[in-house]
Structures are given as structure tokens and as C-alpha cells.
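A favour, since you know our C-alpha cells better than I do. Would you make up a two-line entry for one protein for me to read? Write everything out right here, beneath this request.
=====
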Amino acid sequence: MNEVNQSPTYLWVGRILSGLVIAFLLFDAGGKLAKIEPVLKSMEELGLPASSATTIGILLLVITVMYAIPQTATLGALLLTGYLGGAVAIHVRVNNPLWTHTLFPVYVGILLWTGLALRNPKIKELF
């Protein structure tokens, strides 16, 4: 299937899903970069030093922008999958609730890849 045969409905649903993921991740990165007190407190509760907020925020921002750009979206999705996997590991380590905290990054990852597959026929062919 090529871009010409891509259903406009699938394309728009993919863009909307990807847009929601991008908005959430940009909000998350912004909170870390702005060093908002609740974000820093949450990081410390998860065992991450507050001093790492800027580094994590920059990494998340750069990778999210990569996901938003069509030419680098697949690489961005792969890198975000790694980032989200790390988030799952951190939640498991501190024994957070499974369905609401630990698996939340998995839910984001599902939306991320579904959005990419719907807006990029080459990715959809892999499934």
C-alpha cells in the first residue's frame, strides 16, 4: 500500500492519535524543563534525582520532535518506545499500581505506534 492508496480516514485518525501522544509528551517534557515542583517531587518519589529533570526533559523533547516529523517518525517512535520502557521499569521498581501507573507508558506506546501505523502505510505493512 502506498501513500496514494492510504485511506483519508485512517490518515486523519493516525494524525489525531499521534497529535495526542505528541501533546502529552511535550507537556511532560515542558514540566521537566520548567522544573515544576510537583514534577520534581514525583521524580524524587520514583528514585530519580531532581537534578536530572533538565536532561530527561531535553531528551524527551528532542525525541518527541523526531516522532512529529514524518521523515524521522519511525526513529522517533523507536526511541520513544525505549523511553517508555524505562518508565515502566521505574514504576515496577517502586512497586506502583499496575493498571494506573506501571502500564500507563504501555498505553501511550500503543497509541504512539497505532498513530504512526495509520499515518504511515510502510509501518502498517509490518503488522
Q: What stands out?
A: The longest helix spans residues 8-33. The CA atoms of residues 84 and 96 lie 15 Å apart. The radius of gyration is 16 Å.
